[in-house]
Each structure stands twice: as C-alpha cells, then as structure tokens.
Amino acid sequence: MSKVAIIGGGITGVATAYELAKLGEEVILFEKNYFGSGSTFRCATGIRAQFTDEANIRLMKYAVERWEKLGEELGFDINFRQTGYLFLATSEEEVEAFKNNIRLQNKFGVPTRLIDMDEAKEIVPILNTEPFLAGAWNPRDGKANPFKTLFAYLFRARELGVEAREKAEIIGFEREGKEITAVKYRSNGKVESVKVDAVLNAANAWAPLINEMAGLKRELVPITPYKHQLVKTEPLERGQAEPLVCPPSWNDAYIIQDGEDGGIICGAGIEHRAKSMDDYEPTYDFLRGVLRYATMIAPPLRHAHIVRQWAGFYAKTPDKNPAIGKLLDNFYIAAGFSGHGFMMAPAVAQAMAELIAKGRSKVPIDWDWYDPYRFERGELRSSAFQIG
Amino acid sequence: MSEVPPYLQRGYITPEELFGIIPKPSEERLRARPVAVPECPQEIPCAPCREVCPTNAISMPTPNDIPIVDYEKCIGCSLCVQICPGLAFFMVHYVGDKARITMPHELLPLPEKGEEVVLLNRLGEPVGKGRVLTVVPREKTKGDTPIITVEVPVELAWDVRAVKVVRG
Amino acid sequence: MSDGKVIICRCNDVTVEEIETLIDEGVTDIEEIKRLLRIGMGPCQGRTCIPLVISILARRTGKKPDEIPLPRARVPIRPVRVEVLVGGGDE
Amino acid sequence: MRLNEHPILRFKRGREVTIYFNGQPLKAFEGEPIAAALHAAGIKVLNYSANEKRPRGLFCAIGKCSSCLMIVNGIPNVRTCITLVEDGMRIEPQTGKAKLPKEAKPPEFRDAKAVKADIVVIGGGPAGLMAAIHAADTRASVVLLDENPMLGGQLVKQTHKFFGKREQFAGVRGVEIAKILEEEVRKRKNIEVFLETSAVGIFQEGDEKLVIGVRENRELIEFRGRALVVATGAMERMIPFENNDLPGIYGAGAIQTLMNTYGVKPGDRVLIVGAGNVGLILTYQLVQAGVKVEAIVEAMPKVGGYFVHAAKVRRLGIPILTRHTILRAEGKERVERAVVAQLDGNWKPIPGTEKVFDVDVIALAVGLRPSIELLHQAGCQIKFVPELGGHVAVRDGWMETTVRGIFVAGDTAGIEEATTAMLEGKMAGIAAALRLGIAEEGWVKEIERAQRDLEEFRSGPFGRHVVEGIRKILAGVGGNV
C-alpha cells in the first residue's frame, strides 16, 4: 500500500480518491476552499457521449455506463437521468455534419440518431421548431446533480479511509530527482508536511500552479481559465426541456432543465478570458446575450424569471482535450478538462486510480491522445467538440 | 445590563414608580390650574415637548434625557400633550372632588363634548365612567393629535389614562 | 398544513430537522449545505432562510456567526422575467 | 375587508375593476396589488408550495419572499404582492412548480433605455430621499429609483409621529414626512425619479457604474452613474416555530402595507410576536384600524421598544407577555390558533404554561436585517455586525463602502430609525457629490453637522449598541473615519 496525495477537491480529485481507496491505497485529499468550489459546483450538469472524435466518444461511452450504475454503487441518489442531448441543425451542411458524427458515434456503440422536428417537439415541448432542420439525438446522454455526485463520492471515500481535507492549500513539494517525496500544505494557518508515494494534480484550472510547485514549467501543460457563465430560471415543472438542447451554429447556445429543481439553465459560447483566478464576476453582455438565444430555442421561456447568473472556469488546453497521465515518476495529472470534467469523472477517476495503483487501466482510455507532454511536443489533437 | 425596571417588564408604569423618577405636583399646584405630567421615564432621543413649550418649563439637557417639568412654570397650555410623539404627556387639574385629565385620543370614534365614556386605567381596565369636557380635533391641534379632557373622580386622577367610546 | 413542520426555506420546503441532520452528518460549510438542500436557491434567493441557516449552523457547530461567510448574492438580485432582459416586453 | 374610516389615514382608491379568481368575479381597485384585492375578498391561500404542496399566503408583501406566487393570465410565478390588478385579469392559485405555456413568440431583442446621471440613488425611503435632495443641492444630477409606486419607503405606512428633534421632523407623522420629502424632491429639477423600478444588478463599466433597472416588471433600463447611493432598506426576519409557513402568518411590514397603504384589514384577531418598536407600533396601528389584538409575546424579559409605545397599547387593554414565545401555529389551510408558552432562564419553554389564542393572524415583528444584496453583489465587503442587524457593508465615516463610489445609507447600513436614516442619507448624498468633485469643499461642514446630529441622537441607551456596531464596522477602514 502506498500513500497518494490528491490535489483538488473537485469531482475528478474526489472520485479518484474513492477509486484509489477501493484499490486499497491510502489517500490524502487536499482542497484549498470547500469541496466542489472550483468548477464542479458551477457546471451545467450535462453528460454526453456525442463527441466527434474516437478517443472522447469511447471514453464517454464508458463514462455513461459507469454513470448508469454510479448511484447504486455509491449508495446515494445522485439524480442521474438519461434525458438525452439534442443538437439542432440550422442548415443542410450542418445536417450532413451531424450525419457524419452520428456514423462515428454509432460505430463505437453510441446510439445517436437523426430525428425530425416533430419528434424533437415531443421531446422538448417548449421547443421552437421553425429555425431547425433536424436534430442529433442520443437518449442515453443525460445529466446528474454535481453536488450530490461529489458528496456521494466523498462520503464513500471517507468510509474507505480517505483523509479528505477542506481549506487545506498546497504550498509546495519536496522532490528528489523525478520523484515527489512530500507535500507541504497550509491548514488553519499552520504549515504542515506529509510524506507521500505519489501525487495527482487534479486542480484543473489551478493545475499549472501546482505543476510549477513541483518544479515543472507552468507552460508544460498550458491550461487557461476561461470564464463561462450560466443563467438559471426559477424552479419549473419537469418535462418542459429535459434534454440539453443546443443548436451549435448559434454560438453553441443551449438550454437544459435542471434535474433537481426543474429550473432551466441557459448557456452559450460567450466566453471571457478570466482576469484572475478568482474572476467569477458575471457580465451583463452574457446575461442579455444568452437569453436572446435561449428564447429563440424555446420562446415560452420568455415568461420565466431568471433568478441567478454565475460564472465558472473552463480550464482550457489549446486542443480542448484534457491532460491525463504521468508528468514525473510519481507525479500525475488529470486536468484541463475544458468544460468536460464532470461528465468524464467516473471514467477518468477509475483510469487514473488504476494507472497510479497498477500502472495500467481497464478503462478504454487513449493515453496517447490525452498525453500531458503533447503540448510541449507540439502534437495537438483535433479540437474536442465543446459547447457553451 | 443592570436590572430591568418593572415598568419595562410590564409595559406600564405605576404612579408610585413614576413619582420615584419625576416629582409629583403638589395638591396646591394641581388645584391651581392644569399641569403637564410626562409619563416618559426612559432615556430616548426625543425633544419636541421641550422645543414646543412656550414657557421653557421642560428641562432636558439633551434629547436623550427624560423631560422634567417645572410645574411652577407650566401654564397648562397642553401643547406638549398635542405634540408628544409617544402620547406620553397628560394634564391633570383637580377641581372640587373631580379631576380633569387631558389626554391624546388617536382612535375612532372621537368622543363628543359632553359624552359619557368608559374610563380606562394604564392596563386598559374599565375603572368607571366620566364625562368629556373638551375635545380638540386633529385639525385644530398643534401636534396633529386630537386631545380630549375628561372629568373623573379625583381619586382616579392618577389611574385614568385612556377612554373608550361606547355608543348604541 | 398543521403537521408541526418548522420551515426554514419556504421556496423548497426545507425543515429545520433536515438542516440539523445534515450538519450532524458532518456537512458544515454553508455553501455545501446550501447546495445539498437547495436552500437559498429558490425564487426568494435566500433572503429569508440564509440568516436562519447561519444561526442554526452557529448553534450546532459552536462557530461564531461572523465566521460563517454569507453565500454570494447573484445577479439578478430579484427575479426578472426573461422577456424583460431580452428587451421585448410586449407579446 | 376594506377599511373606509381611519383616525389618521384617508384611503384614495382607483377606478373599480373586475378580476377573476378561479373564474369568480371579484371587485378590485386600480392601483392595488392582486394579493391586496384577494385579501379584501377574504382569499388568503395564494398557492401550494413547490415540493410539499403546503398552503401559502402573503408573507412579506414587498416582492421579496416566494410566498405569493400565482398564475396570472396563464403566466406562472407572478408575485401577486407587487403586481397591480388590471381589469379582466384571470388569477389562479399555483400548485407546485409551474408549467410554461407551450407556445409563444420569441421576444424581440431590443436595446434597453439608457439613463445617465452623476449620482444614482437606489431606494426612495427616508435615506434615499435625503441623499437625492442633498446631492441635488450640490448641483449633481441625480436619478432616484424605487420599487414602489410611491416615494417614502416605509414612511408611507407609519401613522405614528417621529421622535428626535423638531428640525429632524420630530412630532410629525411618518406619512406626512414622506409627503414633505417627496415635495422637496419634486421641486428639484436635477432629480429624475423612476418609480416601480427595481435595481437588479450593478456592473462596473470603466469609471461608471451600470445599474440594471426593471420598470413595472416589463421594461429594462440601464442607469449609468459615476457614484451610487444604495439605500434599499431592510427586510423582515423570520423565526422557526411549528407551521410557521401557514397563510395568516405575516411579517409586520406586510400587515402595515395591506392595512395602511391599501386599506385592507389583515384579519380579525391578531397575535403579535415581538415587543420591539415595530411590534408595538404595529399593534397600535391595528387598533387604529379597528382590528383586535389578543396579545403581544416577547421572548426577552422586557419590552424591547420604547416604553411609551408599550404604554400606549397597554392602556388600550392589550397584554404584553414578556418571557413568552410562540410554539406553533395551528389551522388547516390558514391560521386558526396560536399556541404560546413561557420561557425559562435558558430560553426553553416551560411545560404546562401553554396558552392558546384563537387568532386568524400572527404578525412577526422579530427584527429587521439590512437589505444588502445589491451591495454584496456589487462586490462591497460585507461584515456580520449583530448590533447593526446582521450582515452590513463595511463603510467609512462618510458612508462610502469598500467599492469606491458606492455609498450606503439608512437601514441598509445598519438597522436604526428613520431619523438616523435621513441624516445618513444627507451625508451619503453630499459625500458622493464630493467624491465626484461636484460639491464644493464647503459642503464638508454639512457632513460634519449631520455627524454631530447623529452623535447626539445616538447618545442615549438606545443608540449605544448602534454606536458599538459602527465602531466595529469602521475598525480598520481607511479614509474618512
């Protein structure tokens, strides 16, 4: 048994802590603020296998299979619902592109299909069918409650012996050659140190700062925080816009009904480079811009009330694919999820835990694709299909 | 905090408590002409009575001090009764075996001159009946508060502080 | 409904017992309590319930109320109809 | 039940219109909110809650809680306490979460109306009005916005006369002070007033502050100013007790709104919880409106408000039960009874001391807390100071918050009195104009005068805790301490 330190109490860190503990490892988890406070609790809740490249499709297909059984496994209602993702095409060219994506997704067992607008309207009763020609529909995509999911992992991890610490901030490492030997952190104003056998950097947007503390260059894994915002309506009766509905050609705008209280969440690709690591200030242009799109997607939304607007980071890499793998002999990274950390977590956590504990994984993950050294080598992947 | 005075526990003050805090007008003074008696034992930031008094009979070094009336200077004009925001000023005048109590009355109906009304003590208990001698309606007062003067048995002079109009 | 419930959050019908149970289970960060019970996330935006949650939390954990940070107030600070924000109020 | 006679107030009602509740026609008057019209017709259950379908009625009456949501003309989640009646309106109670209509036309995207001024004052209560008046007197251009259909804030509901000194309107009724200040505002050509206008967010745009306003719930307005005065008042506290969400349980301010603004009786028999000034004044106002108050319960061992307010209600026969608390409300769809009990030295109810009051209204007057949401959202540093009513914005001696150019005044800065709110408003208005370089240096003297007046007002036992609270808030703040 070895001792693994995980840095970052978001979904990736907490889920990996659980997976490592399941494999019998000793785990200490550090979160500088409160659990989920970075990006997890700010996310739009969606989970999809509708990607446009093989690596992400296969990883997410596996993730969805884990999601389907996750609540049962963790013994906690995480409110995972397979309410689908519905992408909408506004031109013939887009319909063709959808068809190509669907073929690729089908090839790897993802049951996406092209649907007409009558069927789309049945699925989303408040949909405006007029501007759209067809939809790409995968009923196995879905959503889950990020708060409950994180806590489900956390509670089980603690039962399995994980020491999960909030308000504990990493301030440095002790390193010998290509190995990290100890982690230094500050908690309750006191600086402490713990000897470790391995370290996982799961700090997502903050990961470059952690890499730097480990003696690596900040730019080695270039992750840039982009401020993405959401607005949400008051709680509404379920069943009005359950799937994530997105016409990608409308600036990646989307709506999705919160699986918990039924409020409709609205997002769009109106993004701002974060001015600092605590730049969560919502912007007025987004508030108006996103609702302009949202009411074109679902005009009855005009009668709902907005109760909140918030921002979170897309921790973006240059190719919008995460960096997952080994950086030093015992220093690992799973970060830079570019908006997909929540949906990927069950698969990535398992893969990462198995890599750390056993050196290999059963998860169908393409390690080369996500190689954290690819940026340094200049081998960017095709951009992961990203919305919002 | 120091001990809570009983009047703050109950919400009303007894004459004994009141005259432990302010002096009581002499019998002679009470018979001479109406005299203003404030039932304002607590230091609150309030000063209109002092500001309105035409004879400077009310001493109150700062608005947070309690009003002390110089009964000799008081001419019984009732302006303090009319202006007091706390409705805490009353005038008392002994006339024979009766006492005339002047008090604010901000409720409907306003009694009429000569009307017999139920007399209420500081707990709102009926303690007898009395006749209304004068009524100054809201429009005619200097303080936007209607005031009335009722005649009560002299032994109730320090009990009656409100009236109830009962009609039909 | 006269069933003896003590309601802290009217928007989501959260009772004092539910909050105390969660605190006793070890969830003591107001941000976490808020998200797990959805307190303060309804149409009143936490105006009524958050001060109550802070006092329950303080009592239950021995923290001082000033050690419990107030969850961030968000735009819009009162619910606004979508069509108003878009700009076309008249249908 | 509508009030027609009142010893102090005269109710001016608008044109009579007809509204439909569940298809049944009801009489209403233009200018009154839906919930007030329904109350006048005896309808108190306005919806059934989102999850548990518990009956709910009016609670805050100022659009801040979620207790009065109804379906109006087919549109769900309408706050009926602030939405005015219109002839022919169809109103239905909402049960659980609402469904949007299936079809609608997409709204047109339009630019918002833009309004610019040197200083934007948010809130037209005593603090905001004084801020606007004084800022205008320094020659600043001022925009004043308020959510309500009339200026004056809580003053318009106050039938009692104010304390303090004559030059601070002592001896004048709240309703009258509101009229005087409104007249002063209307006289000044450099003050532009926007009523029924909510400020819903503040964004920094370069040197300017953008205040997002919503007028009459239907029009977006962008207010831009170089300085802001936030005087958004306070909100009522709630307390936990069994069935504390039953219709018929109101915040004290809600009853004042119903009764004194719209001339609608809240019910017939009332229990008041809290013997602070708000509870005592409300009790007296209920009696003035001809409503029977059964008792006032107060958990503390003494009356918290001014003794003279207590004496006023005691001599009308209303008991004040100190060291008592409410245990529960009872009733099927609305309050039918209230059960209270005596408290021991550790604030625990003493078994066997329960008393039952047959009441249809329970009024909660258990304190106020500053409405700081806008300031918090705008990024002002917030601190918990119990002496000031809870969370307040950190500010300096000239009422400027930690965000340069955002000033605060009145209850928003700390729960106190209308008199102090007016003085703070005056300071904030002048200080904002000084900050912008509009006011001349001579105006500093006026700020200093207001500071002296405040000091004098707060020098008694009632002001002591406020002074202590302000000391805490000023600690560590630079600038004009």
Describe the structure.
The complex is a heterotetramer of chains A (about 400), B (about 170), C (about 90) and D (about 475). With about 170 residues, chain B is α+β, with helices and mostly antiparallel strands. Helix content of chain B is about 15%, strand content about 30%. Chain B folds into 2 domains: about 90 residues, Alpha-Beta Plaits (2-Layer Sandwich); about 70 residues, Elongation Factor Tu (Ef-tu), domain 3 (Beta Barrel), CATH 2.40.30. Chain B has 5 helices and 9 strands; from the N terminus they run αααβαββαββββββ. In chain B, the strands form 2 sheets. In chain B, strands 1-4-5-8-7-6-9 form a 7-stranded antiparallel β-sheet. In chain B, strands 2-3 form a two-stranded antiparallel ribbon. In chain B, a hairpin with an 8-residue loop joins strand 2 and strand 3. Chain C contains 4 helices and 3 strands, in the order E-E-H-H-H-E-H. In chain C, strands 1-2 form a two-stranded antiparallel ribbon. The longest helix of chain C is centred in the middle third of the chain and has 13 residues. The termini of chain C are far apart. In chain D, helix 4 packs parallel to helix 5, helix 5 runs parallel beside helix 6 and helix 8 runs antiparallel to helix 9. The termini of chain D are far apart. Chains C and D meet through helix 3, strand 3 and helix 4 of C and strand 4, strand 11, strand 19, helix 7 and strand 24 of D. Chain D: It comes from Thermococcus waiotapuensis. Chain D: Keywords: Oxidoreductase.
